[in-house]
Design goal:
The chain has one domain: Chemotaxis protein chec. The two termini are 19 Å apart. Helix content is 42%, strand content 26%. With 143 residues, it is an alpha+beta fold. The strands form two sheets. A six-stranded antiparallel β-sheet has the order 1-7-8-4-3-5.
Length: 143
């Protein structure tokens, strides 16, 4: 399980350090793609396969399903860590998520999310305001 929040920087070559607590759980091969809320999703191979299978089950006749599958797979890249525990983020993914210098890397149970620090701070500010409302909605879902 991935948990926690870590702040890092992107170097001039587009590389970021993956927190050491996340490295073993990611494995040798993992996948990065466009996420929701303008962040990047990072999946270990097993979680990628599981999510991929769910997406394969979506109906091709549904316009929103097709659009989501296109977004998800077109932005995806297979990755591995270098000897220093870094991963190179493709320029297209950096642009999508507004990653320039400072980034927040957060654990979200089965995946990692990579945010621009600015976007993460803004998200947290708005989420904190509505935290009670979110909690109420979760209660409706039985959580």
């Amino acid at each position: 399980m991935f948990i926690g929040e870590y702040l890092h920087t992107i170097d001039k070559k587009g590389r970021i350090n993956i927190p050491s607590k996340f490295r073993d759980k990611l494995g040798e091969r993992f996948f990065i793609t466009k996420g929701l809320d303008n962040c990047l999703f990072v999946f270990p191979e097993s979680e990628w396969t599981s999510f991929e299978n769910k997406l394969k089950g979506l109906p091709l006749t549904n316009k929103n399903a097709r659009a989501f599958v296109r977004l998800f797979f077109s932005g995806a890249t297979e990755c591995s860590l270098d000897k220093q525990g870094r991963v190179t983020l493709p320029q297209t993914l950096r642009e999508y998520s507004n990653l320039e210098k400072e980034v927040a890397i957060i654990g979200v149970s089965t995946r990692i999310e990579i945010w621009s620090k600015n976007n993460w701070d803004n998200y947290n500010d708005s989420a904190n305001i509505s935290y009670d409302e979110i909690a109420e909605k979760m209660a409706e879902l039985g959580i």
